[in-house]
Design goal:
Largest sheet of chain A: 4 strands, mixed
Order of helices and strands of chain A: EHEHEEH
Radius of gyration of chain A: 11 Å
Radius of gyration of chain B: 22 Å
CATH architecture of chain A: 3-Layer(aba) Sandwich
Largest interface: A-B, 18 and 25 residues
Helix content of chain B: over 70%
Oligomer: heterodimer
Helix content of chain A: 40-55%
Order of helices and strands of chain B: HHHHHHHHHHHHHHHHH
Strand content of chain B: under 5%
Number of domains of chain B: 2
Strand order of the largest sheet of chain A: 2-1-3-4
Number of strands of chain B: 0
Strand content of chain A: 25-35%
CATH class of chain A: Alpha Beta
Distance between the termini of chain B: 57 Å
Number of helices of chain A: 3
Structural class of chain A: alpha+beta
Largest sheet of chain B: none
Chain lengths: 79, 348
């Protein structure tokens, strides 16, 4: 089970990112635990400056903008 | 069908140079045919070319594709350029510098660094945390939304390169000088406590080397995102312009937004603050005001105020800044915009 966190203060792009990850995970049959991180202090704790950011198992893999579908598939495939 | 489309969609990434070359050629070709095409289109319609309506139609048919073509081209190129200037890299370039030169750098980097108003606050904290001086951070934050490719392209396409360059120069000046003044005022104490107490982190650069193909993707993505969002505003702006173009302009704005009305500039700035929209959203209004005889300086001041000073942004900034710093920020930037408006009206 992958722990995925989406960092963002609740802008439209952050919601799109969450929806997209959910979609890709479902399509590929990967079990994920998705979590939203909206508190500014926590976001800054990851050292991310441009939202939305994506954290997988404690590591920042993406920041700034909605990630592409291909990218998400790569993250989910890497075990 | 999808078997046919999939390789077509992938080939720009595989042969990026070829794609860029072909795309540029196609773009210029299209641009050259706009004028004859719009004339032909009007000629094919049952309207008199020399009538007001015919003139308005021709203007609309010419300007709409022209503006959209320019915008698509520039947003695409800027999307690729943006991929070289991640906020992390910009921050690393600014960290630890002294003010002055750094204000100029920050304002200039504000043009090319991708920026979305929803990440203004994380950016702000990230910069301060990495040791970028407060005034320099403000130079960046003022310039990034105000001086951007969409505003400049639209100004260029609708009002010519002189207006676009003036906007660029003055926008940068406001950002540089305002940031410098805020830095001189030594307002660090008016950051919210939790921001000041955050541990300073070194400004690390997230190194991801992108291939040219991936930068192309970044270009496509920004076209989808930006052009997809702003085209209705542009259509609105051009429709207003066309309406005025064909039918004789009335000077009814001149009486209260003209050059010799001294209070027009402050009024324009004050009206601009509660309005919140992006560069594309103000263009129709700008178009209408200018055509109705409002002075250029007044209108540019209005445009800057709408984009750079907005109530919602201040509410978000309140999470990290104390009231006094926000008030200073607004005061300094508004003063800068006022000066721009007056100087413009006096010179032109």
């Amino acid at each position: 089970m992958k722990e995925i966190k989406v960092l963002g203060t609740g802008c439209a792009n952050c919601r799109t990112t969450i929806a997209l990850i959910e979609q890709v995970a479902q399509a590929n049959g990967v079990a994920v635990a998705l979590q939203k991180v909206e508190e500014l202090r926590d976001i800054m704790g990851y050292g991310v400056m441009s939202t939305p950011g994506v954290v997988i198992d404690g590591k920042v893999v993406h920041a700034g903008g909605v990630p592409s579908r291909d990218k998400i598939e790569q993250w989910l495939a890497a075990a | 069908m999808s078997a046919l489309v999939a390789p077509l969609r992938r080939w720009p990434g595989q042969q990026p140079f070829l794609f860029l070359l072909l795309a540029a050629a196609a773009w210029f070709g299209l641009y050259q045919t706009l004028m004859p095409a719009s004339e032909a289109l009007v000629a094919a319609l049952p309207v008199e070319r020399d009538s007001h309506f015919g003139g308005a139609l021709q203007f609309f048919f010419y300007d709409t594709p022209k503006v959209l073509l320019l915008l698509t081209g520039i947003v695409f190129v800027m999307g690729m350029i943006n991929s070289y200037f991640t906020p992390e890299r910009t921050r690393a370039m600014l960290a630890g510098r002294t003010e002055g030169v750094a204000n100029v750098m920050a304002a200039s980097l504000g043009i090319v660094t991708p920026f979305c108003s929803c990440s203004a606050v994380p950016l702000f904290i990230g910069f301060v945390q990495a040791g970028v001086p407060l005034g320099v951070t403000f130079s960046f934050l003022i310039s990034a939304p105000m001086v951007n490719e969409v505003a400049l392209t639209l100004l260029f396409a609708m009002f010519g390169w002189k207006v676009a360059f003036l906007y660029l120069g003055l926008g940068l000046s406001v950002a540089i000088v305002s940031g410098w003044v805020i830095g001189r005022l030594k307002m660090e104490a008016y950051l919210e406590d939790w921001v000041r107490n955050m541990p300073h982190t070194a400004a690390a650069v997230r190194e991801d080397r992108l291939s040219l193909g991936e930068r192309l993707d970044a270009g496509f993505a920004s076209v989808r995102e930006i052009v997809g969002k702003v085209w209705p505003y542009i259509l609105g702006g051009i429709a207003i312009g066309a309406g005025i173009h064909g039918f004789v302009p009335a000077d009814f704005m001149a009486s209260f937004m003209g050059k010799d009305v001294w209070w027009a500039v402050p009024l324009a700035v004050v009206i601009g603050v509660p309005m919140y929209t992006n560069a594309a959203g103000v263009i129709p209004i700008v178009q209408a005001l200018l055509a109705k005889g409002a002075a250029l300086g007044t209108v540019l001041a209005f445009m800057m105020s709408v984009i750079a000073l907005s109530l919602p942004e201040m509410i978000i900034l309140r999470k990290v800044l104390k009231i006094r710093l926000i008030a200073t920020f607004v005061g300094v930037v508004a003063t800068g915009i006022l000066i721009v408006g007056y100087v413009f009206n006096a010179v032109l």
